[in-house]
Amino acid sequence: MTDSIIGNNTAQLKSIVDRAINLEDQKKEIGNDLKDLWQEAKSSGFDVAALKEIVKINREDGPKKEKRASKEAMLEVYLQALGQLSDTPLGQAAIAGISKGARR
Questions:
Q1: Angle at 97 between CA 103 and CA 43, to 5 degrees
Q2: Does 64 lie in the same domain as 25?
Q3: How far is CA 6 from CA 10, 17, 20, in A?
Q4: Cβ count within 10 A of residue 43
Q5: Domain range for residue 71?
Q6: Same domain flag for 95 and 68
Q7: What is the pTM of this model?
Q8: Does 7 reside within a domain?
Q9: CA dist., res. 9 & res. 2, Å (int)
């Protein structure tokens, strides 16, 4: 029965299993490296959640990037319409930050 399932592809099967094991090991190492990196950032006083969000934003591609820009633009319109934040230095900085993020 084994011959009918695998045929002459035993070497290919072994290769796939070996590569999968290797990739899983690499994935574990990368996970550990990321954990160490976030711990380093935290111990340096950085906000890890904010850093992860920055990484997420920077990795976005076409449709996700456009959706985020649209959402941020609408948020700015609503905040301005409500008169929230737009007349304060903090509000101006927030609006500038949103604008910069939308241009990426």
A1: 115
A2: no
A3: 6, 14, 18
A4: 8
A5: 60-104
A6: yes
A7: 0.57
A8: yes
A9: 11
